[in-house]
Amino acid sequence: MIVLRIHHCLMRKLMQKNRPLQAKRIWQWLTAATALMLFAGCENMVIANLTPSMFPENPSQIYTFSARITPKSRGYVEGSLQPQIVIDGNIYTMEPSPLGEDIYEFDYQIPAGRREVSYYYLSTFEVRFSGEVSPREAYTAITTAQLKGRWILSMVSNRGPAGARIGVVGQGFTGQDTITLNGQPTRTVFDSANSLSFFVPAVPPGRNYQVAVNSPSGTQPVGTFRVDGLNIEVFPSSLDMSQGQTQNVTFTLPQAAPSGGLLLDITTDVPDSVIMPEAVIPPGSNSVTIPVRGGLPGSGNLYLTGFGRGEVVVPVTVR
């Protein structure tokens, strides 16, 4: 036996090094070595925690704890493994998981209002040495899992032109959330607790921008978004009208607008002379026509940014 060989080895070394050593002390050493060998089997029960450190909240408040428990102890008695989990001081039996061999899981309903839960895994089993069966156990360190109310999954699209409406999906969103591109605020729409959307602002196209969700509790990165440039036709290319007169202006894309539509960011340097509604090309359409009414007399321009070479200019004169 390995134990006996170790005993002989220890005795030989002890006698060589300390010949006058009393037999009582030798046997104390041997007894300690034997105990270490007998309990070494616990170290060979491998328990790998497969539970995430953060759970996205769900309406049922039920969360799955799982672990891979692999018996590797010498003399392990097949079928004696009893995998358990200890949560808040209570012991629960884990069941085999359909995810794979040696994987066990337990569904636990975390009480409402809790933001975290502490747990550890405990496995009892038996080993057989020299015909004698002995109980053993192995356990992990205490681990804490947290519940995360805000959970950002991804953007619906990772590229698009200025004015495109882009969705961000996740959970825990509120009406106070805003979305930024490289720190620049966007026009953000609160759709639901699981969805936000934003309109791509008129920024230089052909570049990548970092998207983030901002809330009173902090900022969370979402991902990288690329702004593409689009050509657009404006008819007429200039406006000349009298005060109070209305003239239609049509904006046409070479292809259909994306889902969510395309918001045209139109500004003017003569706001008292130009009265016009917001321009949005509907989803699936490639054009929109809006009425522009002359206000106070003046001359200036309409500016459509994010298109063409970065800006489309339409001269305006109100007489």
Write a compact overview of the structure shown.
This protein has 319 residues and is mainly beta. It has helices at residues 2-17, 23-39; strands spanning 45-49, 54-56, 62-71, 82-87, 90-93, 95-96, 103-109, 116-129, 132-139, 143-148, 151-155, 159-161, 165-171, 178-181, 184-185, 187-192, 195-199, 207-215, 218-228, 233-235, 239-241, 246-252, 262-264, 266-268, 274-275, 279-281, 287-294, 298-305, 311-318. Strands 2, 4, 5, 8, 9 and 10 form a 6-stranded mixed sheet that branches. The protein has a 5-stranded mixed sheet with strand order 12-19-18-14-15, with no helix packed on it.
- Tell the overall outline: rod-shaped
Percentage of residues in DSSP E strands: over 45%
Cα-to-Cα separation, first versus last residue = 109 Å
Topology-level CATH name of the largest domain: Immunoglobulin-like
* Count of beta strands: 29
Q: Tell me the Rg in angstroms.
A: 36 Å
**Structural class determined from secondary elements:** mainly beta
Mean of residue pLDDT values? 82
CATH class of the largest domain: Mainly Beta
Number of alpha- plus pi-helical segments: 2
| CATH homologous superfamily (4th level) name of the largest domain | Immunoglobulins
Mind telling me which CATH architecture of the largest domain this is? Sandwich
Unreliably modeled segments: 1-24, 26-42
Number of domains: 3
Main sheet characteristics: 6 strands, mixed
